[in-house]
TrEMBL record:
Keywords for the protein's UniProt record, in alphabetical order: DNA-binding, Transcription, Transcription regulation
Protein name as catalogued: LysR family transcriptional regulator
Organism: Gluconacetobacter johannae
InterPro entries: LTTR, LysR_HTH_N, LysR_subst-bd, WH-like_DNA-bd_sf, WH_DNA-bd_sf
GO MF assignments: DNA binding; DNA-binding transcription factor activity
SUPFAM superfamilies found in the cross-reference section: Periplasmic binding protein-like II, Winged helix' DNA-binding domain
Domain of life: Bacteria
Ranges where the HTH lysR-type domain occurs: 19-76
Keyword field contains Transcription regulation: yes
Family: Belongs to the LysR transcriptional regulatory family.
């Protein structure tokens, strides 16, 4: 007896590809700001990191989205299509965060401060807000480099972030002000060894650190970072001990440090308060306004 067996084969379907929203946000930001460098500063990333995000997005989609037109990247035909979808997807994404997360009565508010601002202002500012009953019950405070705070507030991991940027780039800040920056040391002269300027700095990615290195290199002065610390107190202790010199906001410089004038002049920087996606029309915006009043010079 002949037996027939029917075998059902499941049709092959390729794995679903998912496009991360941070890649779409990188594309929109590059186009809106006209370049990778400014997009990186807006997103809290380096220029190579943004380029890598665009390359990854192109790899996932299998098409070229941007091409060079001089110094400005230009959208391809596929890029124009992708950009339209990206704007709509990000608008829906941010609206979802606002609707589903922002209205939770007991939602925790996350605030980020740069390390030196946290050490200098945080106890006084938070005490003042508590005394005035302006501080919501559930608040978490994190301290980090400005570049990381900007990245996290854009991504929605923070609701409010205070961050330092170059003086001409306070893009997207709900409030901003200038901060004068100065060289500080144990005495009025730079600390040098064999003509090399010894530097005390915050970790890699810090705006003060990048500015010090760039200015000294442009002036033809050799320099070396001899001490790295994540705290204002640690930085001040190393400078007081004569290990090297550093750069700080003038009004944040701890007592006992001397201003050094025999080095390239440091430019002003901009302190800005940035709001995450949850902040629109909520108590978070009101809290940010009170913080701005408390932190402005």
């Amino acid at each position: 007896m002949l037996r027939l067996q029917a075998r059902w084969r499941r049709a092959y379907s390729p794995p679903m590809r998912t496009i991360p929203t941070d890649l779409l946000r990188a594309l929109v930001t590059v186009v809106d700001l006209g370049g990778y460098t400014r997009a990186g500063e807006r997103l809290g990333r380096t220029q190579p990191a943004v380029s890598l995000q665009i390359r990854r997005l192109q790899d996932l989609l299998g098409v070229a989205l941007l091409e060079r037109d001089g110094a400005t990247p230009r959208l391809t035909e596929a890029g124009e299509i992708c950009l339209g979808y990206a704007r709509r997807i990000l608008a829906l994404h941010d609206d979802m965060l606002h609707r589903l997360v922002a209205h939770g009565a007991g939602a925790r508010i996350r605030i980020g401060f740069p390390t030196d601002f946290a050490d200098h202002f945080l106890p006084h500012v938070l005490t003042g807000l508590q005394d005035g009953h302006d501080l919501p019950g559930h608040v978490e405070v994190v301290s980090d480099l400005s570049v990381n705070l900007l990245r996290d507030v854009r991504a929605g991991s923070l609701d409010i972030a205070l961050a330092m940027t170059p003086s001409h780039l306070p893009d997207g800040a709900m409030a901003s002000w200038r901060e004068a920056v100065m060289w500080v040391g144990a005495g009025p002269a730079p600390v040098t060894t064999g003509g090399v300027v010894m530097l005390v700095a915050y970790p890699e990615g810090c705006l003060y650190r990048r500015t010090m290195l760039a200015l000294l290199q442009q002036a033809g002065r050799m320099c070396d970072v001899v001490y790295t610390t994540g705290s204002l107190s640690g930085l001040a202790a190393a400078v007081r001990a004569g290990m090297g010199v550093s750069a700080l906001s003038r009004r944040l410089a701890p007592a006992g440090l001397s201003e050094i004038r025999d080095l390239p002049e440091l430019p002003d920087m901009t302190a800005g308060l940035y709001l995450g996606p949850r902040a629109q029309g909520t108590r978070i915006r009101a809290l940010a306004a009170r913080l701005a009043d408390a932190l402005r010079p």
